[in-house]
From TrEMBL, chains A, B:
Lineage: Bacteria, Bacillati, Actinomycetota, Actinomycetes, Propionibacteriales
GO molecular function term, any single one: 5-amino-6-(5-phosphoribosylamino)uracil reductase activity
Pfam families xrefs: RibD_C
Source organism per UniProt: Nocardioides albertanoniae
GO-annotated biological processes: riboflavin biosynthetic process
Domain Bacterial bifunctional deaminase-reductase C-terminal: start-end pairs: 8-184
Name this polypeptide is given: RibD domain-containing protein
Length: 215, 215
């Protein structure tokens, strides 16, 4: 069965996946790009990067994915819904290369971009969005692309099969915290932690078979 | 120069060092002993335990320590100050084997226990408590023994030289969080993360030389 997967979601030691305030100039607020430096150093991001543990795990982001679901806060800065020409942060050729479902309370018609990405806009609960995305993925997996609030909502709803978090050794103190509302998540997942020579720790949550929601 | 050190402070993925509510029956609240199972499996705790990475790091708890500082919440359950006969959780022969300073707003006379532990009770700010403990330690290091609130206060005051946290792969959701108020701690410490085959991740915070408060 196809899976719902989260990849490369970087968090601080205190669990924040973004800082604050978020704006067009600072999409991650006071966190800047500190949560993502580990990824920039990999071949996944840059062909001159490293090809070790961080890269192997980062590369899974695109493997076997047929559609993505993302939240409104990932698609644009606060207020993007008021700009009819806003088509995301990623230019004319976004890196998703698949149907990409943006959750927003103010949906608009789909936008077809270059390179295989089409943005669809949905105002539906997580389970319904996932059903729609699975159909669009045609048998492949669906990536829950973030931000943290969306990932949290999908995990809390029991909809995520695999979640890869990357813990970066900084303490952000404020922002959007991945853990809120996820008490006892270990009951549903096998959790593996592996520290990388780069300094980050990869946390992989694999849904336990008996708890599978798609099985 | 002698150091102020924190050892074996176990936290959940979401940073809680204890659950809630804390009581005489459940000193760690709903966390139970889940934060400490890694330690019970080591030779540090039980002579039939493991002697690997977890043990090597756990053993540092007692090495070179001449005094401990602990908070009121570590010394006893809520309300212990009303019991004149309360002498801690640890029986007649506590494991500290050194002068041990309990921070409380209701100090009482010192209590000499078996095995080298004497409990002293102080109602002073962190820096003053540490100065007193360093004197008592006679050139050895001082352990900041917890709980989480006390560790947090000492770190926030810039008084801790080395901090060893142990991250356990559970999400507690509530309790006392180690990270609150410690934004940008990475500016003052080199942080090393190493995952153990047991499933926990050891986080070692070593104060950067330029920021040393005792140097």
């Amino acid at each position: 069965m196809p899976l719902a997967r989260v990849h490369n979601l970087s968090i601080s030691l205190d669990g924040f996946a973004t800082g604050e305030p978020q704006s067009a100039e600072a999409p991650f607020g006071h966190a800047g790009e500190r949560l993502h430096e580990w990824m920039f150093a990999t071949r996944f991001w840059d062909s001159s990067g490293s090809a070790g543990l961080d890269d192997a795990l980062a590369q899974r982001h695109g493997q076997g994915i047929g559609a993505e679901i993302m939240g409104a806060n990932k698609f644009g800065p606060p207020g993007w819904q008021d700009d009819p020409d806003w088509t995301g942060w990623w230019g004319s050729n976004p890196p998703f290369r698949s149907p990409t479902f943006v959750l927003t309370h103010r949906p608009r018609p789909p936008v077809e971009m270059e390179g295989g990405t089409t943005f669809h806009f949905l105002d539906v609960p997580p389970a319904e969005a996932l059903e729609t995305a699975f159909e669009a993925a045609e048998g492949q997996d669906v990536r829950i692309g973030g931000g943290a609030t969306v990932v949290r909502d999908f995990v809390a709803a029991g909809l995520v099969d695999l979640m890869h978090l990357v813990q970066v050794p900084i303490v952000l103190g404020r922002g959007v915290r991945i853990w809120d509302g996820l008490e006892a998540t270990e009951d549903d997942y096998d959790i593996e932690a592996v520290s990388s020579p780069s300094g980050v720790t990869h946390l992989t949550f694999t849904r336990k078979p008996e708890g599978s929601v798609h099985g």
